[in-house]
Design goal:
The chain is mostly helical. It has six helices and two strands; from the N terminus they run αββααααα.
Protein backbone atom coordinates (compact mmCIF):
# COMPACT_ATOMS: atom_id res chain seq x y z
CA UNK A 1 0.00 0.00 0.00
CA UNK A 2 1.34 3.43 -0.86
CA UNK A 3 1.86 6.23 1.61
CA UNK A 4 -1.15 8.10 0.20
CA UNK A 5 -3.42 5.10 0.79
CA UNK A 6 -2.19 4.73 4.35
CA UNK A 7 -2.76 8.41 4.99
CA UNK A 8 -6.30 8.13 3.67
CA UNK A 9 -7.00 5.17 5.95
CA UNK A 10 -5.41 7.01 8.88
CA UNK A 11 -7.56 10.05 8.12
CA UNK A 12 -10.70 7.90 8.06
CA UNK A 13 -9.67 6.27 11.34
CA UNK A 14 -9.07 9.66 12.96
CA UNK A 15 -12.48 10.92 11.82
CA UNK A 16 -14.14 7.77 13.17
CA UNK A 17 -12.22 8.12 16.44
CA UNK A 18 -13.35 11.73 16.77
CA UNK A 19 -16.96 10.66 16.35
CA UNK A 20 -16.56 7.88 18.90
CA UNK A 21 -14.87 10.26 21.34
CA UNK A 22 -17.69 12.78 21.02
CA UNK A 23 -20.24 10.05 21.71
CA UNK A 24 -18.22 8.60 24.59
CA UNK A 25 -17.92 11.95 26.32
CA UNK A 26 -21.54 12.99 25.88
CA UNK A 27 -23.58 9.79 26.21
CA UNK A 28 -24.31 8.27 29.62
CA UNK A 29 -22.03 5.41 30.62
CA UNK A 30 -23.70 4.55 33.92
CA UNK A 31 -27.33 4.51 34.97
CA UNK A 32 -28.21 4.92 38.61
CA UNK A 33 -31.67 4.03 39.86
CA UNK A 34 -33.35 4.94 43.11
CA UNK A 35 -36.03 2.94 44.89
CA UNK A 36 -38.75 5.28 43.62
CA UNK A 37 -38.01 4.16 40.03
CA UNK A 38 -36.09 7.32 39.21
CA UNK A 39 -33.13 6.76 36.92
CA UNK A 40 -30.18 9.05 36.31
CA UNK A 41 -27.69 8.58 33.50
CA UNK A 42 -24.24 10.08 33.87
CA UNK A 43 -21.82 10.87 31.08
CA UNK A 44 -18.22 11.92 31.81
CA UNK A 45 -19.21 15.56 31.32
CA UNK A 46 -22.16 15.36 33.69
CA UNK A 47 -20.05 13.36 36.15
CA UNK A 48 -17.44 16.14 36.24
CA UNK A 49 -20.21 18.69 36.71
CA UNK A 50 -21.77 16.67 39.53
CA UNK A 51 -18.39 16.30 41.26
CA UNK A 52 -17.86 20.06 41.12
CA UNK A 53 -21.35 20.70 42.52
CA UNK A 54 -20.87 18.23 45.39
CA UNK A 55 -17.61 19.88 46.39
CA UNK A 56 -14.91 17.56 45.03
CA UNK A 57 -13.01 19.85 42.64
CA UNK A 58 -9.76 17.85 42.75
CA UNK A 59 -11.49 14.60 41.77
CA UNK A 60 -13.49 16.47 39.13
CA UNK A 61 -10.26 17.90 37.72
CA UNK A 62 -8.60 14.47 37.60
CA UNK A 63 -11.60 12.98 35.78
CA UNK A 64 -11.74 15.98 33.44
CA UNK A 65 -8.07 15.69 32.51
CA UNK A 66 -7.90 11.89 32.23
CA UNK A 67 -11.28 11.14 30.66
CA UNK A 68 -11.83 14.16 28.42
CA UNK A 69 -8.68 16.22 27.78
CA UNK A 70 -6.12 13.42 27.42
CA UNK A 71 -8.06 11.51 24.71
CA UNK A 72 -8.71 14.81 22.93
CA UNK A 73 -5.01 15.70 23.01
CA UNK A 74 -4.09 12.24 21.68
CA UNK A 75 -6.60 12.61 18.86
CA UNK A 76 -5.36 16.08 17.92
CA UNK A 77 -1.78 14.81 17.98
CA UNK A 78 -2.74 11.99 15.60
CA UNK A 79 -4.27 14.57 13.26
CA UNK A 80 -0.99 16.50 13.39
CA UNK A 81 1.02 13.38 12.56
CA UNK A 82 -1.38 12.39 9.80
CA UNK A 83 -1.02 15.75 8.08
CA UNK A 84 2.79 15.88 8.15
CA UNK A 85 4.38 16.01 4.71
CA UNK A 86 6.03 12.76 3.65
CA UNK A 87 9.48 14.39 3.80
CA UNK A 88 8.98 15.09 7.52
CA UNK A 89 7.87 11.56 8.34
CA UNK A 90 11.46 10.33 8.40
CA UNK A 91 12.36 13.04 10.92
CA UNK A 92 9.29 12.53 13.13
CA UNK A 93 10.81 10.03 15.57
CA UNK A 94 10.38 12.52 18.42
CA UNK A 95 6.71 13.01 17.60
CA UNK A 96 6.17 9.27 17.44
CA UNK A 97 7.81 8.82 20.84
CA UNK A 98 5.53 11.54 22.22
CA UNK A 99 2.40 9.76 20.95
CA UNK A 100 3.76 6.55 22.46
CA UNK A 101 4.16 8.34 25.79
CA UNK A 102 0.61 9.70 25.57
CA UNK A 103 -0.65 6.21 24.74
CA UNK A 104 0.74 4.89 28.00
CA UNK A 105 -1.80 7.00 29.85
CA UNK A 106 -4.76 5.29 28.12
CA UNK A 107 -5.50 2.91 31.02
CA UNK A 108 -5.91 5.98 33.20
CA UNK A 109 -8.94 6.96 31.09
CA UNK A 110 -10.69 3.84 32.36
CA UNK A 111 -9.61 4.60 35.92
CA UNK A 112 -11.07 8.09 35.62
CA UNK A 113 -14.39 6.70 34.43
CA UNK A 114 -14.36 4.23 37.34
CA UNK A 115 -13.68 7.08 39.78
CA UNK A 116 -16.61 9.06 38.43
Amino acid sequence: MTLGGRRFLLGCAVVAAAGCLALAVSLPFVRLTRPALLAFGHSPISGVNALFEVGHPVLAGVVLVLAIFLPLIKLLYLVLLATLPSEDLARSATQLRAIDWLGRWSPHDILAVALA
